[in-house]
User: Which sequence fits this backbone?
């Protein structure tokens, strides 16, 4: 896939996320492969259930109260979007 707006290739933010997962994923309880994460992020038509679960899990690890129904609003509230 060529680098585009919908691709993780060449995106420095994706490199940072991959580095974080490689270094802290086990400690944070985030067990996802980089190719799987890339596939979930590049699917701009659907929010993959596992991607939502990763966000919810990380927000809860940051001591935020997050419900499954309002996780996207929680990301906005803490300034991640």
Assistant:
């Amino acid at each position: 896939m060529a680098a585009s707006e919908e691709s993780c290739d060449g995106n420095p933010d994706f490199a940072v996320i991959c580095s974080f997962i490689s270094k802290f994923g086990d400690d944070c309880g985030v067990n996802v492969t980089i190719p799987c994460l890339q596939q979930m992020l590049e699917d701009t038509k659907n929010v993959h259930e596992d991607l939502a679960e990763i966000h919810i899990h990380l927000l809860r690890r940051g001591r935020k109260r997050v419900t499954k129904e309002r996780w996207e609003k929680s990301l906005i509230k803490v300034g991640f979007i």
Notes: The mean pLDDT is 82. The CA atoms of residues 17 and 23 lie 10 Å apart. The radius of gyration is 13 Å.
